[in-house]
Structure formats: structure tokens, C-alpha cells
Amino acid sequence: MVADYNHAVLARLRIALTKWEVREKEFAATQPRVHRRRSSRVIAIPDADGGRSTQFTRQKVVKVLL
After folding, report:
1. Are residues 21 and 39 in the same domain?
2. How confident is the model at residue 1 (pLDDT cuts 50, 70, 90)?
3. What is the domain count for the chain?
4. Is the pLDDT of residue 42 over 80?
5. CA 59/CA 27 separation, integer angstroms
6. Does residue 27 sit in the same domain as residue 40?
7. Does 28 score more than 80 pLDDT?
8. Do 39 and 20 share a structural domain?
9. Helix, strand, or coil (residue 45)
10. Domain of life, per the record (predicted)?
């Protein structure tokens, strides 16, 4: 059961990454002078009170370089 769930999650992740790569290639083909750089940064997950917690997550950041 757990193996099936893990397989499904990995399959969906692979599909999402493939779609992202296709979009990047299409954008590069239409806008050759514009470069986008993908990165991620670590942000704190806020508490229920709105304060900082000890849990963190990654957030995707896309920078457009002209």
C-alpha cells in the first residue's frame, strides 16, 4: 500500500517536472534574449498565532534576467 502511494507520488512529480521543462523550452524558443533562473528559498511556516515556528519549507522563485 505504501509502495503504491510512493510510486504514484513520484510519477506525478516526474510528470510535473517534465511539463515545467517543456514550458521552459517553449519560453526560451519564443524569447531568446530573456533568461529565467529558477531557484528556491527557505521560508518559515507561521504558527497558528502568526508567529514563527520551527518548521520550514522551500518556496520556488523565478528570476527574469534581461
Report:
1. no
2. low
3. 2
4. yes
5. 22
6. no
7. no
8. no
9. strand
10. Eukaryota
2, three cell numbers: 505504501
Specify the amino acid at residue 65.
Answer: L
- What domain range includes position 13? 1-32
Q: Which of 8, 63, 21 is nearest to 41 (CA)?
A: 63
Rounded distance between C-alpha atoms, residue 39 and residue 16, angstroms: 16
Q: Are residues 39 and 61 in the same domain?
A: yes
Copy the grid coordinates of residue 36: 529565467
Cα distance between residue 43 and residue 61, in whole Å: 12
pLDDT over threshold 80, residue 35: no
Are the C-beta atoms of 53 and 47 separated by less than 8 Å? yes
Nearest 5°: phi and psi at 36? -110, 135
Give, as one character, the DSSP assignment of residue 50.
S
Distances (CA, A) of 59 to 13, 20, 33, 51: 16, 16, 26, 18
